[in-house]
């Protein structure tokens, strides 16, 4: 720190630095504490109490909610939610990676246009986008009409109200969340690394497998988490596209609060989700740290 | 986001408010109303409002402080109701008739208004519209003012059957506003022969596989199995639940889906041919397709009722009761049937419903005796979680 910084005038005292940080961080931090941390703690505290008759909480200590949450019915819901969210994430990755890669390789002008196109669907209301799938997939819908009209099928297919429809809906809704982080990490890659790899005799596939892919892994992991987490908690898509026949953890939690008036049990299920998600975030930060170091920068 | 709430089922209808409002017609003419009550004493006395202000909350003494001479023009009340469930100009009508002010707030579901009322503190709501079993729960919590027939003379318009509903026999703390039942809403051109039994949707002819929907809200999801097995709609017996689960899990395999809110649209489009349906909601389908019909299966069904309750915390009970009374006016009450296609338990109001409408919507052409044959849903307190569990077990089964 002996280097002088003439354009900044006199060196700032450390206290000033702290103050500056407090000013910048303060509002966000305050918001987070008041509107995120406190409510989350409140909800978590509900997990050890009884349900009130009209919803709300009866403040009598109990661990029943945890035993209930481990009943086979709920385990089954959790497993099927994990499967659906994993399928949606996998498909989004398969679809999203090539798109992100291709966009990153384009000249600047085109990148901007294509990135905007990726984001544009986000400007339409989530519900309307989901309803569009109902119009497409129902037995009297566009897809069935087309297949039937072309004589490809004799009987109309039940495409809607299946697990497949739920997965399709989730992929569609969250695909941009996969593309953007992967794009960001691929676009950041130094093209000289690939040239070096080619100069050393690697073919394009080897270069991709040993250079590009590992370096883009932090983006991949981030994208996967961005898709997996909201997919797991989503309750609108299973309800609309699953026809109420597919129950996910999100539906379960929503129903406990809004239908069953069983806040403590809903809070307990939410706690399981929170723990699961924290574990995922820990994994993500491990992966990105590891590859950030190996990749140099 | 409106959607997640919209499927929450409330007595006889869900909270998806647009479906109800979108069909509202403006036909109400303020001139039809009775002139404002003449000869009301205008002096300002120590009204119940003042008494309630000073007194401690929730003692029975309040009920006796109702003042027949209260100056309603000094009072103002807040009413919470489902959107589109009463005439849009109700506040003007109320003002004209009684002089009292009226603010309307809307709730989408029973659960929503229950949360508001029971959150602690003064909800600010004087009159709430809730389904019968919720009125029962509110009363058990000591939150409702007893209905004083002196202040609600129009209760005389109610059918006798409507005064014996199991959740509140004698209308002690609730006044029924609408009532109805649950049955099968189906496409008569696509389902032959017509359904007669709950088993027609629980264990359907294979040609209807994947073309049937059931209601998704707990008590009604269980209903077809309960009636098919000969159980009470209010059963809390664990053995009954085990049997119901088997039947419902089996039935799920033949379903297109569970649907509280758009089943009639699926009938119109032909996606579904038979749906478990609330009578009023089936009417929305009938209005679009004349082949859509409603029937109550031979095993019987439930009888639900949406009611009006006056909160004990209300500081303007005279106006609150005057409001309840006005809603029971035949003209006002008939509006509900003519616009929302629900039966009202009001003999004089039903007499005003045009025959043509009853022809178009046969579920409106039902006698109170026929309705009362069905079993009244009551609140089950702690045992209601059994229905939640059953619903999860069934909907999560594969």
Structural class of chain B: alpha/beta
The overall pLDDT of chain B, averaged over residues, is 83
List how many beta strands of chain A DSSP finds: 2
Largest sheet of chain A: 2 strands, antiparallel
Largest interface: A-B, 36 and 41 residues
How much helical structure, as a percent, in the residues of chain A?
A: over 70%
Which structural class do the helices and strands of chain A define? mainly alpha
Estimate the global geometry of chain A from the Cα principal axes: globular
Mean pLDDT of chain A: 87
Written description of the protein model:
The complex is a heterodimer of chains A (297) and B (398). Chain A has 297 residues and is an all-alpha fold. Chain A contains 12 helices and 2 strands. In chain A, α1 crosses α12. Chain A is globular, with a radius of gyration of 25 Å. In chain B, α8 packs across α9 and α8 crosses α17. Chain B is 35% helix and 15% strand. Chain B is built from 17 helices and 12 strands. At the A-B interface, α3, α10 and α11 of A face α1, α5, β8 and α17 of B.
